[in-house]
Amino acid sequence: MLAPKSWILEHVDVPEGTSTDELTARLTLTGLKLEAIESAGADISGPLVVGRVLTKEPEPQKNGKTINWCTVDVGDANGTGEPQGIVCGAHNFEPGDLVVVVLPGGVLPGGFEISARKTYGHVSAGMICSARELGLGEDHDGIIVLPADAGEPGQDVRGILGLDEEVIELEVNPDRAYALSIRGIAREVAVSVPGATGFRDPALRDTPPADDQGHPVRLEDTTGCPVFVARTVSGFDPTAPTPDFIAQRITAAGMRPISLAVDVTNYVMLETGRPIHGYDADKVQGAIVVRRASEGEQLTTLDGTRRTLTAEDLVVCDDSGPIGLGGVMGGESTEISATTTRVLVESAHWDAVSMFRTGRRHKITSEAGKRNERGVDPTICEAAADRVVELLTTYGGASAEPGVTVVGEAPAMPTVTMALDLPARVSGLPIEPATTVAYLEAVGCTVSVDGETLTATPPPWRPDVTDPYDLVEEVVRLVGYDTIPSVLPAAPGGRGLTRAQQLRRRIGRTLAGAGWVEVVDFPFVGEADLDALGLEADDPRRTVLRLSNPLSSEAPAMTTTLLPALLRTAGRNVGLGASSVAVFETATVTLPRSSEAAPILPVDRRPTDAELDALVKALPDQPLHLGLVAAGEADPAGWWGPGRPVEWSDAVDAVRAVADALGLELDVRPATLAPWHPGRCAELRLGDALVGHAGELHPRVCTTFGLPARSVAAEVDLDVLIQHAVHLRPAPTFSTFPAAKEDVALVVEESVEAAAVEAALREGAGELLESIRLFDVYRSEQLGEGRKSLAFALRFRAPDRTLTDEDTTAAREAAVALAAERTGAVQRA
Amino acid sequence: MSGPNSEYDPVEVTPLQAEHVAAARDEAIAAIAAAADLEALKQVRIAHTGDRSPLALANREIGALPPQARKEAGQRIGQARGAVNQALAARQEVLEAEHEERMLVEETVDVTLPTDRRRRGGRHPITLQSELIADIFVAMGWEIAEGPVVEAEWLNFDALNLGPDHPARTMQDTFWTEPAERHVVLRTQTSPVQARTMLTRTPPIYVACPGRVFRTDEYDATHSPMFHQVEGLVVDEGITMAHLKGSLDHLASQLFGAGIDTRFRPSYFPFTEPSAEVDVRCFVCRGVDADSCRTCRGEGWIEWGGCGVVNPRVLVACGVDPERYSGFAFGMGIDRSFMFRHNLEDLRPLFEGDVRFSAAFGTEI
């Protein structure tokens, strides 16, 4: 809310010398946060003065235009006291008029610097200003002609034009709708600024009594529209200009002056908080009826939009049908125009929820709607209408028609009961009962105390105050949030991070320690992303949870895999010139599993466990995944020698390192799955549980994402890993007897997996085997096409004795024998 | 058979003559002294103490002496050999020291050469910031609660007293999943974790929940459709706003430095009443000479988050007895905290995965 300071101070007195900073600091501390203090003339500098036009010589120009060569008395403002010669293109003034002159050296909005310059054969030493040039409005039809008594030539004109006005911008929370008005802000100043007195309520005025002579109004839905006040003025001059103070104030408040009739309704809305609608009374046919629209009913609103209404919308109708979307926007058919001479003023109270829904449904946001949907004081309809009538008669030459229609009545405010000591108990401050009562009364509540119980009736402008804790907030904010002491609560002994939380940290550290860089991506995905991975049509990762309102139509769903975003990220880094990229992300993915709805449960009690269960089951599965992508160099080249490019094993090993950090050893099997290279993809398991996949990317995927050939990736389910993580490990015991080492080289068919050979060796070697490690894979012509030699280093040790040559030979031979039997391995000579 | 040669005079055995022994000794010692390096010394050792060295050969002759002569000859040889071995050991020590010194000089490398043979990794600064915050709460005895990002509408809104007509529920703020009748949303706040915690645990409850949240904000320097919040919730007997202030002051001082505290301003949130905005004291200027401070832009305070006393309506919906228990809750932006803590003006680098950004933080922020 933008509030001109002078307007606020018209309705409340603050101690002499209270600065704007002090005033707004108090408002901020009690709940109206200062956003900014702006001054209307802040972007104008230099001499801007009153001038009296002495002479005006019209001079027709070759281009068909006529300019006026003027001399203007600017007093001593130009330093000489001599008349100032100025060329002016406008014609709406005469010698003797008082005008606004900016002298050389002045700067107008937009950084427009004024200097004496030669134009149309004269030296024009300054400029006579229009409202638009001063940033005061859109009016550029002519220059500003000041009232004859506005001031003396040479006098600074800022005060006269309201350019020295300070405008206070306050942030108003949705529960404090009353502060969307000068009335509310002035009341807040009176309550919260020390020493402020004399709040003068602009909505407190004597209004003529209701009678049955006014425009007939019938309310068919008194829930939606409990009160409707109608007043009519006639003899209105549609050409009458809006007085400067109104134009300046509504401009300062962020609204645009349009015409007197419209400006007056906006002015009163800003002043009282009560939105007003004006109709061209001559266009209203017959009695006004307020009702809910019938489904599909049509209305063209003021903005020219033809709208199809629903049975929830409130409409104002006349004999012709709907003429306005009640409380939200008027209709085109009865709009006030340049020929309107009779104005029907509507000041009605509308149901806030209905206003909110209609506004959203028809996507209408307006100053009126903003107030109506947050809640307006329902008791000031008559006063606000009367204020509009007063302004239209004063400035528009109109006269009030007899007859005052007041239909319905303001709903009564509910009473709220609370324990008298509740503010103290909630705040932790020693708030006395007398303080509680005083502050509640200060904000407008009617309060009574019975023993330990306080009963308050909130004022009609506070529909938000419904609960005991609402009363507490009113008291505590005025006592001052800044007085609340700082006391650290003593939590009972905590259990620290959960095991899963600790393990997730460990996983991140393990990867970072191994040279991987963590990134964070958005979890949105589109079909094109999944296509780019090369997923089969029936790949379960194509079953996505779609968003109704995605930000981008290219990524309209929640992702089932971290890879598309990671691949893009890796590609972007390569594009930026990185020679080595290794990125990882841990995040949940969304796997739809149910088509059941998540029920909307009651809020007046705890839902049953069965209800909660249904709620949770309706949600998609959201396992925590780890994704990683590497490209380029695994190890850089350097003075130590050549580097090593990334290869499939880097991806597998990264996942193995993670598993190792969790005390787990993964089973690795070959697999075929997009987006991996079909011959270079490992499936990683823990027994029956699938953990994920790792390996080299399919060459097409590398190309698609702008990655170098042989880039690698992995994606695994961390929940599975964490679930299986080893918790209590028994301490190992070691034999101190010497080890015996044996190397064996086995020739197998190319298709035989190293892991199978190793497993057979391990099993065949028996208990004496301490460790086994594959240290070479060798192929040669001598071995023959389609064969390879696998060289293993075996280490034997006994727990209780030094092994003999016979022991180790026997164990080695048993190992080789089992490998031969299982895998067809032949020991190399 | 002949008897012992009682006439044999040991002095007559030339190698054992004192002058010969002394000569052999002196020759050995001279050779030792002349050995220039360990290899030469090794040769000297063989020549002068080996089996075929003069002293060794002379030693063998002792056996041929009559018993009465053996002792003296043995002593003479023994002393000579002792002197030679001593000289050898001393020379060995000197030469080894020389050798080591020379070797160490020769092996000098340029230690300023680059050593980065392995890639350096790094964790995302928001992860690190989240962990740092979690640690602060854990140190207070709180626990870290979690919940899913795709969440039931009821838990994200209704249970938190965000009735069906609250502005935050409109299409402008919330990502809804299809079809809308299923009432599943992307959580707009970490607050549903509050509801989940109260629904599944009994007080006393002291939890913080960092996590990702979503709003339909267009992506720009200060807005992101996904960002991170940390939620705090305490439900216990006798909890007041003073405890809320104490907890946030503690968090502020741990995160931004000793003496950094918070300020409350009245505000409005459906799930808390009374509600407050939390400002944290600017940790750069501390409110002194704030006018020229770029971090707080002259305010002396930085907007940090929202908080308040848990609305009793929320307690009721979550099965907590509001007559017995009261609580407080708060929520702060983790990204936002990170941004002003680390002087980052544009949040987009957080989500664009340029490895230079995360790598710059390594594993510590």
Question: Can you offer a commentary on this structure?
Answer:
- The complex is a heterodimer of chains A (829) and B (365).
- Chain A is of the alpha+beta class.
- Chain A has 21 helices and 43 strands.
- In chain A, the strands form 11 sheets. In chain A, strands 29, 33, 34, 35, 36, 37, 38 and 39 form an 8-stranded mixed sheet that branches. In chain A, strands 3, 4, 5, 6, 11 and 12 form a 6-stranded antiparallel sheet that branches. Chain A has a 5-stranded mixed sheet with strand order 14-17-20-21-22.
- In chain A, strand 21 (321-325) and strand 22 form a beta hairpin.
- Chain A starts with a strand and ends with a strand.
- The model of chain A has no long low-confidence stretch (mean pLDDT 93).
- Chain B is an alpha+beta fold and 365 residues long.
- Helix content of chain B is 39%, strand content 18%.
- Chain B has 11 helices and 9 strands.
- In chain B, the strands form 2 sheets. Chain B has a 7-stranded mixed sheet, sandwiched between helices.
- Chains A and B meet through helix 2, helix 7, helix 10, helix 12 and helix 13 of A and helix 5, strand 1, strand 2, helix 6 and strand 5 of B.
- Chain A: Residues 42-158 form the TRNA-binding domain.
- Chain A: It is an enzyme of class 6 (ligase).
- Chain A: It is found in: Cytoplasm.
Lay out the secondary structure.
The complex is a heterodimer of chains A (829) and B (365).
Chain A (H helix, E strand, L loop, with lengths): L1 E3 H5 L10 H11 L2 E7 L8 E13 L5 E8 L10 E5 L9 E5 L4 E2 L3 E2 L3 E3 L2 E3 L2 E2 L16 E2 L11 H4 L4 E6 L10 H11 L24 E3 L7 E8 L9 H9 L7 H13 L4 E4 L7 E5 L5 E3 L5 E3 L5 E5 L2 E5 L3 E2 L12 E7 L2 H10 L5 H8 L6 H16 L2 E2 L4 E4 L7 E4 L2 H6 L5 H10 L3 E5 L2 E5 L10 H12 L19 H15 L3 E2 L5 E2 L1 H7 L11 E2 L10 E2 L4 H13 L4 E9 L20 H9 L6 E12 L8 E2 L2 H14 L5 E4 L5 E11 L2 E9 L1 H6 L7 E6 H7 L15 E10 L4 H12 L3 E10 L8 E10 L8 H19 L2 E2 L2
Parallel strand pairs in A: 14-17, 29-33
Antiparallel strand pairs in A: 1-13, 2-13, 3-4, 3-6, 4-5, 6-11, 6-12, 7-8, 9-10, 15-23, 15-24, 15-25, 16-23, 17-20, 18-19, 20-21, 21-22, 26-28, 27-28, 30-32, 31-32, 33-34, 34-35, 34-39, 36-37, 37-38, 38-39, 40-42, 40-43, 41-42
Helix pairs in contact in A: 5-6, 6-9, 7-8, 11-12, 13-17, 20-21
Chain B lengths: L17 H17 L3 H12 L4 H8 L5 H40 L18 H15 L3 E2 L5 E3 H4 L27 E3 L4 H10 L4 E10 L11 E11 L4 H16 L5 E8 L2 E10 L19 E10 L1 H6 L8 E8 H8 L13 H7 L4
Parallel strand pairs in B: 1-4
Antiparallel strand pairs in B: 2-3, 4-5, 5-9, 6-7, 7-8, 8-9
Helix pairs in contact in B: 1-2, 1-4, 2-4
Enzyme class (chain B): ligase
Main location (chain B): cytoplasm
Cofactor (chain B): Mg(2+)
